[in-house]
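CO-FOLDING WORKSHEET

Operator: S.A.
Ligand of interest: calcium ion
Run index: 264
Mode: holo prediction, single chain
Checklist:
[x] sequence pasted
[x] SMILES validated
[ ] output reviewed
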Amino acid sequence: MPTNSRATGRPGAARWPGGGGFGLILAPLSTVAPGGNTAGELEATTILGGVVWSDIDHDGIRDPGEPLVSGCTVWLLSSTGGSLYGTLTQNDGHYSIEVPGPGSYRLEFEPQCYGLTARDQGGDDSLDSDANPSTRQTDLIVTPFTDIDVTRWSGGLVGVNGVNPPDRPVFILGARPDPPPVARMILDIEDPNDPASVTTYNVYRSTNAALPPDQWFQSTYDQLDEDQNTPGVQISDLELPPVGGVYYYRAAAYNFLCSIEGPR
Ligand SMILES: [Ca+2]
Ligand SMILES: [Ca+2]
Ligand SMILES: [Ca+2]
Ligand SMILES: [Ca+2]
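OUTPUT RECEIVED:
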C-alpha cells in the first residue's frame, strides 16, 4: 500500500482473530448516482418522488459525494396548502408518495434543522432542488396520472446558523479486539470534519470489500467517541463478528440532530 493511501482511499480491513494482525486499507469517497428509475409504464395512479441530499457546496445541484439524507419528512399538500399526508426519505435519500386523485398538489420538505438550497439550478431536473427555500414548498404540480414521477422532486439541504453536516470521509487508523473476554472490535478513527458538524459515528462491516457501500451491514449506530478525554476518536463494532473470517470496516461521521451521515 503506498504511503499516500489515506488520500487515495481504500476500505479498512481487519483480520480476526490474529494471524496477520490488523491490516488497514482506507475507505474511498462514495459517489451519488442519479436517483431512481424513470418508469414509463402506464399506472392508474401517480407517484411523485425524488431525493433529499445535503448540498455541501451550496450550488443547488446534487454533486457526486454529497450525502443523501434519510429520515427527512416530505409532505403532500393539496392545491390550497392543506397537508394530505407525509412520508420519510429512506436510507438512500429517496422518497415516493402516491397522489390520491386528479388535481394539483405541492410537496413540502421538512428537514429537522436545515434549510433548503436555491431551487432550479443547472439544467438537469433530476439533480436540482425544487422547493422554494422560504416556504420549503414546490410550485403546484399538475399530475399527469400516467407516470411514475419519482426522480424529479428533490430537496437540497443547507446548514443554517453556521451549522453544517459532516462532508468528509473518516479514516480507520486501526482495528483491535477488546482484550479477553472479547466483546467487541475497537476502531481508532481520524475525523477531518469540523467538530461542530459531527455528533456521533456509524460503523459498517462486510466480508466483501467490493460490495457497494450502501449494502454493508451497519453494526453500530449513532455512537459517541468512547475516549472523549483523549485526542482522536474511538468507536466500536458492538457485535463480535464470527471468529475465523476476514472483515472490512467503514465508518462515517454522523449528525443526529439532522439524521445526516457524511461520506463513507
Ligand atoms: Ca451541490
Ligand atoms: Ca427543478
Ligand atoms: Ca428536480
Ligand atoms: Ca477521543
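REVIEW:
The chain has one helix and 17 strands.
Confidence is low (pLDDT under 50) at residues 1-43.
[x] output reviewed
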